Structures are given as C-alpha cells and as structure tokens.
Amino acid sequence: MDWKRFFDGLGMNGTRWQWRMMRWERSLKGLLKGQPTPGSAEISLTKIIIFINLALFSLMVIHGTSLGLGGRVLLSPPTKLLIFWGGQLWPLVLEYGEWWRCLTYAFTHGGIIHIGFNMMVLYQVGPLIESEIGKARFILLYTLTALTATALGYLWHPMTPVVGASGALFGLIGFAISYYHRMGSPGHHIRNFMAKWAIYAFVFGLMVGADNAGHLGGGLGGAALGLVMPMGIRVRGLAPRAFNLLAVLCVAVTLYSLTMLALNVINNL
Question: Tell me, which fold does domain 44-268 have in CATH?
Fold first, then answer.
C-alpha cells in the first residue's frame, strides 16, 4: 500500500507516517517470527493494562457526573451505567451479538474502591509474572483467564451483570500458585505470597459481594496454564513464533473489543 499517498490525502505528513508504518510492519513481522523487537523490553504490559482500566473508569465517571449522579458514580455506579461502559451481561451477548463484552467487562469497575483494590493487586502481581514468562505469554494468560472467568459466570449466573478485572487477576494468581509450586522449594515463597493475595482478594470479594464465579473461573484457568507452561529458560525458547502469534491475536481481539465499546458509547450518547 502507498502509505505516503494515503496519509498525504488525510492532510498529514505522508513521508513521516510512511516510515512509521514501515517500521511497525517490520516489528510485527519480527514478532510473528519469534524475534524480539527494539524497545520491547522497556514496555510494561502491566502498566498498559492499568492505564486502560483507569482511563475507562475516568470516562465513566465523567459521563456519570454529566448525568447528575454526583458522588454516587465514584463510589457505586448504577448497574445501567456499568453495562453502558462495557459490563458483561450475557443476554446482550447472546441476543444482540455483543461478544466484545466478554473482554470489556474486565476493564470496567464498580467504583473507586473496586478499581483501587484490583489495580493494587495487578501492580503487585503482574510485573513478577510478566518478567518470569515474558510478554507474549503474559498477555495470553491475562486474556484467556478473563474469558474463562466470564465463561464460568455464564454457567453460574447468566442473568447477573458482571464487571471488574478480578477474574483475570485470579487467573494470574492461580497461574502463579501452580507454576511456582512446580519449582519446588525455590518457588514456594512466591507460591505462598500468591496464595496470600488469593485469600485477601477472596475475603474482599465476600465483603463487597463480588463475582466469586468469575474468581473461580479465572483462578482455575490460570492454574491449568500454570501446570503446563514450560519453566525456566525453556519458557523463552519454546515455540516463540506460536506464542507470539497467539499474543498478537489476543491484543487484536482486545483492541477490537475496546473499539466496539467505544463505538457503542458514541452511538448511544
């Protein structure tokens, strides 16, 4: 494709954007071949996920404030607003084809305490696992456990609205418990640390009436992956192209889901 002509037609600097597109294409091809891309080591997927959660919550609060909800939107947003901003509700998925909710719900939160606790757990747990298994496997783990969490929610309470990253967080914790348990005594202190976080999150969930079905679904999905994920140095050398391809697919599906959420919000404002 003639990127220069395309961007020139949009009134942008076609030459500059042409070089950017060429660089991104080379990076994507290298990623699919299992080759590291320049600057990838400095990118923190955990921080990116936290940023998306905070950005979406901020937009929801601004919208709720404009509707006259006042402080309620910050502490306990109404269910209708949560659904509007990406919450999971299986009848909308099955009857209207809004499958993007199977991922966007994990970026939507029911109040500042809810998002504050979840992001604190992600900030504590995410970097450890990301550095251990690599970025491709981390995004695969996070995405798949968000899906296993909502899948069990469908079997448990299909008519109940669900929001929050806790399903995917339990996925990370469940993964870490089984993964580090396999290491033997060197990994047991990390296993115990993760088990402690699981207890804290479970107790917090009971206090606020959280989705324990999602917690269980995410935790089981993560634990299963932790039992089969290659360990140590092998984790970076085993089938990098396959894992990178799956990671790109997860990123694409997540971006698609967030885009569909954005279009749904714009069309219904």
Answer: Rhomboid-like fold (1.20.1540)
